[in-house]
Amino acid sequence: MQKLSMERYIESKLTVYFDEPFWAGVFEETNNGKLSVCKVTFGAEPTDAEIYAFILKKYHKLRFSLPVRAEKKQKADNPKRRQRNARKQLETTGIGTKSQQALQRQREENKTEHKQITREQKEAEKQRQFELKQKKRREKHRGH
What is the mean predicted confidence (pLDDT) over 58-80? Predict the structure, then answer.
């Protein structure tokens, strides 16, 4: 957790889990009460050193989803409760529902972006073919 001025926090969390047939990781980043997520597929089970190297080298290249409002959980003062909660977090696998929703939104955005790019490419190809036909027609009429 990194403390910024005026009591603002940036909190990052990585959850690594087995998503048949590959190991995947979900980076969750909370900034000013907004949650952004990014899913990464590792392939084989990553070691701690590989995860650390990945974070150092490739974290800045990750494409996080658009921020979603996240409620801040109250911290328990009771040390036994903290220990119980920590054990529960270690036992649970997968990702939280807010993270899943943010990932789904990111997938949908990528899908619409990809559709738009392909549509533009198809139109450009169609236009190129049309111009090629027109050029051939003009050359035929020249008498060459």
Answer: 79
